[in-house]
Amino acid sequence: xxxxxxxxxxxxxxxxxxxxxxxxxxxxxxxxxxxxxxxxxxxxxxxxxxxxxxxxxxxxxxxxxxxxxxxxxxxxxxxxxxxxxxxxxxxxxxxxxxxxxxxxxxxxxxxxxxxxxxxxxxxxxxxxxxxxxxxxxxxxxxxxxxxxxxxxxxxxxxxxxxxxxxxxxxxxxxxxxxxxxxxxxxxxxxxxxxxxxxxxxxxxxxxxxxxxxxxxxxxxxxxxxxxxxxxxxxxxxxxxxxxxxxxxxxxxxxxxxxxxxxxxxxxxxxxxxxxxxxxxxxxxxxxxxxxxxxxxxxxxxxxxxxxxxxxxxxxxx
Length: 317
Prior knowledge:
The chain is of the alpha+beta class. It has helices at 105-109, 176-185, 187-196, 220-233, 245-272, 284-293, 306-316, and strands spanning 4-9, 19-23, 30-34, 44-48, 58-70, 73-78, 85-92, 98-103, 128-133, 147-152, 159-163, 166-174, 200-205, 239-241.
């Protein structure tokens, strides 16, 4: 029986579960495909794999202190100081299909917003076409929203909408860990500078702001200060914490739809609306005629006095 808990890259192409886990239980261990390498911000969905590769590309190999199956769950304790206790829960979902969720005590207690996402069109746009950056791995599919996706290289962000060849709005997507890495490495300023050039842009985080203060590998105050600096330096690019992946996807869909509608309205006003005509200056003959009708003395020729002109402007302004 394998003695270590091993994480490797999944060699299967086109999969949404890019990692392989080998749990030291049974003769050859239990092999699962997983979405993440550890359940840090939420439960991680797993699925049984056919087997372990002959030449795996190993990411991490950790000694195991305890691995015990108790009913429909497997309790795993690793031989390291942090991120050492987790549990695999085997269950059945709709249709009787097996589902496996990898969780920790913290992610299991993490409250989820009990909300039902709306199905109405974003800003009234029918089948919004969202452009996904060609470098985005495991991209959102917007299956719940009335949107379609296409792939191409974006000059900024991960998800955007275009008008003609012009990128009019873009959203940069971040997990909490990715956000922390981008902030502490100094890359966030350059990322925000690229987004700030666009008419509309935002950064969306698949977690809560409160999770910043639960970080254990970096001081929470450092991350909080870096976020505040980003907001102050780039006020046109908000950083939105959307709690979950589903809510982040929903916010992005509606933001891009609203940006598309706003751009269309702005373009229409710029190209179609005409300036209001300005009033023509009165002629000398018109002022002279008006003055006489008011009993004011004016000469038949020459300049009209300033007093008469001022009175004309005051009464006809």
